[in-house]
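pasting for the record
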Amino acid sequence: MNITCTDIDLVRQVKLGNRSAFDSLVVKHKQKLARVIARYIKLPQQIEDVVQDTFIKAYLGIMAFREDSQFSTWIHRIGVNAAIDFLSSERRRIPLFQPPLNSNTNEFIISDIIDDSNPERIFIAQQTILSVLNRLPEELRTAILLREIDGLSYEKIAKIMDCPIGTVRSRLSRARANIEIELNLIGSSLSKKHDCSST
């Protein structure tokens, strides 16, 4: 394969049935994709499995790739979703979100909503976050994870998700609202439980 081929050149060759062209894309993007997935999954073997799953999904769905965007952006998005699916299937707990707060936004830190000195609250909140994420539409789930876990800017999220920044803000707002409502409900429930047990 000519090393001067661009990603788009390689994608077009894959679409024509050239498997070796896809192998070249794998070699070119594998390490960067692994670093992306390592933000979510820590064990090396599991990272490798999710990377492989990501490339399989990309190969099977290559005909849907729009050549007006970067291949790296497209494969990144598939990788993030593959990592999320893995976490869901393994029933792993996602850490509490700790995004940097911007005083000009309505962003929240989830540990402010729950009592982080109470192990029971922390555990239940973690399970609740995972449960809510699993039920969110894909575009909301991807946006909130890219922002809260990866710490990406609105501009970078918009590029990855191929949508306007205003749409990113809307998706983040809707995702946070869903999470905050359920955490507040749990907080109230645990408070009532505590009050009853102390009487």
